[in-house]
Amino acid sequence: TNRRMQKEASSESESADSSTFSDTSDSSDKPPKRKHKRKHKVRGGKDGYIRRVQTPDDVLCHYKAILKTFLRTRSVSHSCKQHSVDRNTIALTAIIAELQIIATPELHIPEFQGETLQKYAKKCKDYLDTKPEVMSKITEMKHNRELLPIKYKFRKEK
Predict the structure, then answer these.
(1) How many CB atoms neighbour CB 94 within 10 A?
(2) InterPro entries, per this entry (predicted)?
């Protein structure tokens, strides 16, 4: 601001010395205000919009996206950050997605009946406990990096 005042003072003295002094513009006494650009919220496209996961299909979609990123980054937590999904959320619902990936017509996986995903994940865990061959196939796929290397988590019931 001091420099601006000095420039204004020097320009006033120069204009007073000049023979072509004109009083046509009174607004020249004040320097023009600078316009500031307004900041706009950045809206992402389809990928930027994060929706709440409510069905097993949504879980599978998130899981596959994170798996694809994991193969590139080699870090589950970094992959989750890139997709703006909490790592614990993936750990809570991973069992659902893994069962859907492995699902064949011979396997009769539990059906989703509109309950919470937490209850459905527990159903899937109970199903895996009764089918050790399916569980061994999942662990084998995790070792081959075909599935995310996440241990299952379950919230305690209140």
Answers:
(1) 25
(2) CCDC106 (IPR031591)
Cα(94)–Cα(121) distance, integer angstroms: 8
Question: Can you give the pLDDT at residue 32?
Answer: 83
- Domain residue spans in the chain? 56-143
pTM of the model: 0.65
**What amino acid is encoded at 116 in this protein?**
T
Tokens of 58: 């949504």
Structure tokens at 6: 């000095």
DSSP for residue 20: -
**Encoded tokens for 85:** 């999904």
pLDDT tens, 10-41? 555 555 544 455 555 555 688 888 888 887 76
Q: What count of other Cβ atoms lies within 10 Å of the Cβ of residue 147?
A: 21
